[in-house]
Each structure stands twice: as C-alpha cells, then as structure tokens.
Design brief:
The complex is a heterodimer of chains A (about 300) and B (about 375). Helix content of chain A is about 75%, strand content about 5%. Chain A has one domain. Chain A has about 300 residues and is an all-alpha fold. The longest helix of chain A has about 35 residues. A two-stranded antiparallel ribbon of chain A has the order 1-2. Chain B is mainly alpha-helical. Chain B folds into 2 domains: about 220 residues, no CATH class; about 70 residues, no CATH class. Helix content of chain B is about 70%, strand content about 5%. In chain B, strand 1 and strand 2 form a beta hairpin. In chain B, helix 14 crosses helix 15. Chain B is globular. The two termini of chain B are about 10 Å apart. Classes of the chains: A mainly alpha (about 300), B mainly alpha (about 375). At the A-B interface, helix 4, helix 9 and helix 11 of A face helix 6, helix 11 and helix 13 of B.
C-alpha cells in the first residue's frame, strides 16, 4: 500500500504537470504554432481570464459559466489587440516580440492600478480524496481532463469546420486565400481571438487554484512559449503532446529526486537540449522522418 | 583616394579629423552633432554645480543605465541579436562585484579586483550560454526568449538563498534581502575604492566624485564603441545582422562574431551592474526580474536601436521621465509600456532616429537653399 501511494503520488504529479503545460500552451499553439506570431502578452490574457472568472464568481455566477465568460472576454480583448497593434507586425518576429512585451506591461500595470496588487481568491471546488496517508485534490484531475478536451476541440475546429479550412488556407498562403474570396483580415483576427480565448479559459481554470494578481501572467508566458517551441510546427497536435510529455516527465522526475527549483530548471534545460538536437522542434523531426521512411519504402517497391 | 562604402549616410567635413569616430555606422557626423555632443557632456559635467545633491544621486543612476542601453544597442541594433535578458548580465556583474569586494576588502583595501571580476564573470557566463546558443544556430526569437528565461531562473535561484548556508567567504547571498556580509566582523558592501596600496580614492555613490567618474566612463565607452562599430569589425557585425548566409559565404564565422559581440555586451552590462552595486551599495534578486529586462528593451527600442547614441539618449531621457512619473503615482511603468507600443507603431526604428532624420532633411534643405559653399563641398566629392 505504501509503495502504491508513492507511485500514485508521482503519477498524480505527472498528470498535474501535463495538464498545467497543456492548458498554458493551448492558446499559444494557435497563435505561435499556426500564425507564427509571438505574443508575449499571452500570460496577461490568461490573467484577464482569471480576473473575469474571479469577479463573475463573486457576483454569484457558477464557476463553469464564469470560466466561459473569461474565454469570451479574453478573446474579445485579443481581437481588439490584433486589429489595433499586432496586425502591423506579421512577418517581423523580433518586432512583434518587443511590441507584445510592451502590451503585456501595459495590461499588467493597468490591472495593478485599477484593481490593486491582489483580489479575493476563488475557492478550489470538488474537495479531495485520500490515497494512503496523502490526500489529492480532485480539481487537478479536472484540469487535466479540460486540457485534453480543449486540445481535441481545437483540432476539431481546424479539421472540420469551414472556418478551420479558411484559417488553414490563410496561414498557408494569404494572397491566394484572399484571391479566392476569403477575408484574410477577419480570419487573422478571429484566429488570434480564438487563441486568446483559449488562454482566457486556461486563466479562468487556473484562477481556481492560484493566487490572482496582476503579475499572474508572467508565470505562464515563458512556459507556454517553450512548450510550443519544443513541439515545433510540423504538426501542432503531435508536437504539443510530445513536448508536454517530455517536459512534464522530466520536471516530475527531477522534482521528486531533488527539489522543485531544480525540477523547474531541469525542464528548461531539457527544452534547451531538445532544441539543440532538433532546432525545428519534435513534430517537425517526426514529420521529416515519416517522409524519409515513405520515400525509402517507395524506392524499394519500385526497384 | 579611398571612399567610404556608401550606406546612404552623407559624408561629413569632419570625417578626415575624427577617424573611426565618424563613420557610416553611427548617426550624427556633422558639425551640429559634435557641437551638440560637447554641449551635452559639458552641461552634464556642470550639473553638480547647480543641482541638488539628491538630483546628482539620481543622475548617477541614469548614467549607469546608459551602459546597459549601449550594450543592448551593440548586440541588437548592430548585430541583430535581441536579448530579452540583458539585465541578467547586469545582475551577475553586480553580484560578482559584491561577492569579490566583500571577500577582498579587508586584505586589499580597494575594490580593483572586484570591479574587474564584475566585468569578467558576466563575460565568462556569456561565453558559456552564448556558445551553446550561437553554435547550435538557434533562431533569433528563441535566443531572445531563452535569455529572458535564464534571467528569470537566476532571479528565482537568488530569491531562495535566504538560508544561511548560502555564503561565499565573507558574502552571504541573503535571498530577497540582497547581498550582505556573512558576519558582523565582515565589511559592509563597499562603494568603489580604486587605487593601489595606500593611495586609494573612494568614490561614494552619493557624491559628485562618483558622478564625474561614471560620466567620464560612459563618455569613453560611448566613443570607444563608436570607433568599434565604424571599424571593419563593425561592418562585419552589420553584415551578420543583414544577411548571415552571405557574410558566411565571404568567409567569416558568423557564430564566432555573434559570440564575441555578445560577450563584449555582457561585459558592458556587467560594468553597469558593478557601478549600480557600488552606487547603492546594494544588489538584490529583483534585478533579474521582468521589470529591469523590459526597461532595457524599452530604452533601446524607443531611442533607436541601430545607433549607439540614440539608444543612450533613450535610456537617459526615459529614466528621467520615469523618475518624474514615479512622483505622480504608480503610472511610470504603464506610461513606459504605452510609449514603447506607440513608438513601435509610428516610428519602428526609434523616436530619436526618426527625429534625427527629419533634422538631416531639414539641414540638407537649408544647405541647398541658402548655403552655396556647402554645395561646392558635396559637389567636389568626385561623384
């Protein structure tokens, strides 16, 4: 029983870390992975989501609906930002990096001035269950489930809806898509807004577990970014899964052997090593290998 | 006669006298610029005569920020390497200075070695981290973000060093409270004490002497970097920024050049950290946080990253503005963020650069309209 509890504890941590990374990165796989825009303000959009959730909850709205509000709010803010600022910086990576960092500073400082350094927290729902002599929160597992659902729905949106087809066409070749009658400006704004809305939902989910402050976002932006970069652009979904599994796996392992700080550093170290070995990310490498294998087999067939 | 490579910048009558100080890689080469430059340095040098002591203390701090702006302009503006974590080198330099100074002050009586350590240690760190990044040919965006992550991680580490076991000789890292002496017998974190043996000068951060020292050092650094970017090395830097593949085809090792300039910039940022620590006799983990890192980027982007002078001006002016705003409440950072976003939208190359170009156009207009002599000078260029 003792060892079972220990193993369960580590598995629980692993799922917790996976859910955390997937939720943080879910909006950014669209914004950076698909659109190629770097949004350093992503964490601040999550922060907006967290604030909306907290305010709605304290106004008597049930938490799930409050989180949906958070998604809508963050999505709208994202679309406004895209139309006003970010659309001027497509194809200029370093400039978009700097300007969105400026936006993140503006948003967090505005919240600091308007709402002060902290607001009333939202209690974590669902309670906990005991295994051995430890107790585990149920909500953490809900986070994991929601993370999986969010990734699945993103995939479904881009694979099956008309909007998804248009968005993929626009990202592939904007001029061609425009010539075929797609309003690419709207598509960019909507795609960006969708990414921000996912960020807002993630922020709302985290609002139920974390302290909400104007500097809530900075904990998430670098993590989300690194998760997406390690995943690579070959295939957003396999990229996300492979990168989250490797990063969360290493973090959990080192966390248990040494301590939390070293676990955190080890995760960034692992990301660096993966990027050194596979500069274009894991999913790109997998795609390349698939192509190579296919070519090799077709050569065998023809000979 | 050798003509300078054309880069769009007009040549100046001062070119033959100033050598490498005047070249196409730096804006401001004419008589008006140098007159203005000497005037600004003179006014800054006279400040202690007619300003309150409190203002001089603040002005010393502004000048210290200038080094940091120069270091980012050198790598980002000239070589195209954006680092969102330039303050990491600032902090490392400050901590290195403090740790060495605390340990050696009693036996040496000066902080010469500490000051050198504050410059060398960030450079060694830059060789290590830059070597990995440049030789792996990481994309520029990844380098920018990785540097931020590195800075945040060092800050995170420094924050949790409140445990008494984190001592290095006479220095105790002290967690959130910042670097301090390990025991009551050890000296306090010193100001700069330069010199040998008994003939030492102490430059207290609250005195005018420290201000003069920093002003002199900043002027020398600026002029030295001006020479550097106008030398053949500077041309290679710009080559790496504009087209790394072509620069490589010409036989230059782009990775080595990027690494060398990254280290140089780390050394300058380290110097800034040394001066800051000596100025306030204080260094703490917040120096590695998001705030200091984004401030450097704001100064350089708003001033104009592709010129040392505009980046420096951006730092000095914005530091002064934010000091003014701090007295108005908590809007300083909001205002700086807004300035950054607005400037990126209306003048992506930097406010000072855009204004400088308007000035140049106006000057050319005045010259062609009213000055026939100027016409002859440019006419005899042998075009």
């Amino acid at each position: 029983m003792e060892t079972f509890a220990e193993i369960f504890g580590i598995a629980y941590q692993l799922f917790d870390n996976i859910g955390f990374l997937v939720l943080s990165a879910s909006g950014l796989i669209i914004i950076f992975g698909m659109m190629g825009v770097i949004n350093m303000a992503h964490g601040e959009l999550m922060m907006i989501g967290a604030y909306i959730t907290a305010f709605s909850y304290h106004a008597g709205i049930p938490a799930p609906i409050a989180i949906i509000f958070a998604g809508i709010g963050a999505g709208l803010v994202g679309m406004v930002l895209e139309r006003l600022v970010i659309r001027h910086f497509y194809k200029q990576l370093l400039s978009s990096l700097v300007v969105t960092w400026g936006l993140s500073l503006m948003i967090s400082q505005t919240f600091l001035i308007v709402f002060g350094p902290s607001i009333l927290n939202v209690p974590t729902p669902f309670g906990s269950f005991p295994v051995g002599d430890q107790t585990f929160g149920i909500y953490r597992m809900v986070l994991f489930a929601v993370a999986v659902m969010m990734v699945a729905s993103v995939w479904a949106i881009f694979a099956f809806t008309k909007f998804g087809t248009r968005a993929r066409a626009t990202m592939e070749n904007p001029d061609m898509a425009n010539a075929l009658g797609v309003n690419t400006g709207n598509i960019y704004a909507l795609t960006f807004g969708l990414g921000c809305a996912l960020g807002g939902v993630a922020g709302g989910m985290f609002a139920l577990t974390a302290t909400i402050s104007p500097f809530f976002g900075i904990n998430y932006t670098p993590l989300a970014f690194i998760t997406v970069v390690v995943g690579g652009g070959g295939n957003a979904i396999t990229g996300l899964i492979s990168s989250v599994l490797s990063l969360a796996g290493i973090q959990t392992a080192v966390n248990n052997v040494v301590n939390v700080y070293v676990g955190y550093v080890a995760m960034f170290g692992a990301a660096l090593v993966i990027l050194l070995a596979l500069p274009r990310g894991i999913s790109d490498y997998l795609e390349q290998r698939k192509i190579r294998v296919r070519k090799a087999s077709s050569r065998e067939n023809s000979s | 006669m050798k003509t300078p490579p054309s880069s769009g910048a007009p040549s100046s009558v001062l070119d033959p006298y100033l050598g490498l100080l005047n070249g196409p890689q730096t804006m401001g080469r004419g008589v008006p610029f140098w007159v203005g430059f000497i005037a600004i340095v003179t006014v800054l040098a006279l400040c202690p005569e007619f300003l309150r002591r409190y203002d001089i203390i603040n002005f010393s701090n502004f000048l210290i920020s200038g080094f940091l702006a120069l270091s980012l302009s050198l790598i980002w503006g000239y070589c195209g390497i954006l680092s969102l974590g330039q303050a990491a080198f600032f902090g490392i330099g400050g901590y290195a200075y403090g740790i060495v100074a605390l340990n050696l002050l009693n036996s040496h009586g000066n902080t010469d070695v500490a000051m050198i350590a504050g410059i060398i240690v960030p450079m060694i760190f830059a060789v290590f981290i830059g070597g990995i990044m440049f030789y792996a040919r990481l994309r520029g965006v990844y380098i920018a973000i990785l540097m931020l992550v590195v800075s945040l991680l060092i800050g995170l580490f420094m924050r949790q060093t409140a445990d008494p076991s984190y001592t290095m000789g006479a220095a105790y890292l002290g967690g959130m409270n910042g670097l301090r002496p390990a025991s009551a017998d050890d000296p306090l974190l010193p100001s700069l004490i330069l010199g040998l043996g008994k003939s030492v000068v102490e430059l207290d951060g609250r005195d005018a002497s420290f201000y003069y020292f920093v002003l002199g050092l900043l002027t020398v650094t600026y002029l030295g970097l001006r020479c550097l970017v106008n030398s053949s090395y500077g041309y290679i830097l710009v080559g790496c920024r504009e087209d790394p593949e072509r620069t490589e085809t010409f036989g230059y090792d782009v990775r080595l050049i990027q690494l060398s300039v990254f280290c140089l910039a780390a050394g300058i940022a380290g110097l800034s950290g040394v001066l800051y620590t000596a100025w306030g006799t204080y260094i703490h983990p917040d120096g590695f946080g998001v705030g200091p890192n984004i401030l450097v980027v704001i100064w350089v982007a708003v001033g104009g990253r592709k010129d040392l002078g505009t980046a420096l001006l951006g730092a000095l002016v914005l530091e002064w503005v934010s000091l003014r705003l701090v007295s108005e409440g908590e809007i300083a950072l909001l205002a700086l963020g807004s300035i950054l976003v607005v400037v990126m939208l209306i003048a992506p190359r930097g406010l000072a650069v855009t204004l400088g170009e308007y000035f140049n156009t106006a000057e050319t207009y005045v010259m062609t309209r009213f000055g026939s002599r100027a016409n002859k000078v440019t006419g005899s260029d042998g075009k």
